[in-house]
Amino acid sequence: MENIFKPSAIGSAIRELISAIPVTLEIAVVAAVVGMLIGFLLALFRIKKWAVLSQLATLYISFVRGTPLLVQIFLSYYGIPMVLNMLNYEFGTSFSINKIPSMAFVFVAFSLNEAAYMAEAIRAAILSVDKKDIEAAHSIGMTGGQTMRRVILPQAMIVAIPNLGNSLISLVKSTSLAFTIGVMEMTGKTKVIAGRNMRFFESYIGLALLYWVLCIVIEFGIHKLEKKFNIMERKVEDSDQS
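Request: output the structure for the sequence above.
Response:
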């Protein structure tokens, strides 16, 4: 039985995979931050309904959400060097294609993918803000920027946090595709470990457990963040305790 299934190989795989956790988290954090910034702009374009920008944002979101992330990774991996080669040819620049790290392609693909999903979550959150609050802000002389910072965003964050948290969890799990272009995150390292010890089942059990733990930690953090932003919920809790 020991030759068929070796439980100790699970622990051994987990110990080796721990060193790859920073790479997985780096991909997720960079993509989440950049994706949120781009997603916010896309959401504004759609909300404001600026003719060309709104249509381009809608087209972009539809394309990204309608194509697999793996395909987008390959488009980034093969497309960016092609664009740089074209620039070198047209303008006489000297961009070095071979020196671009695989991580850069991953950052681009994951960030642009995340932006499409973030845009819809942010747009829905902004539209959920009561128009009376916005009108009241304008009536006391607040500018559009002040209204956005002081009235709309604080309320929208309460609505958006659960959806953004779910997106972050999905993003962490999606980082498993980065190994397809040579990035040694957790899944890529698992392939190496399993290929070395031939304990594929045990190695992937260890990988699954690590992803599970990471997602539980993120869920816990998102729950804490949601409670912090939800002022009304905190007031109710304080009144109940008193």
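Residues 144-174 form the longest helix (31 residues).
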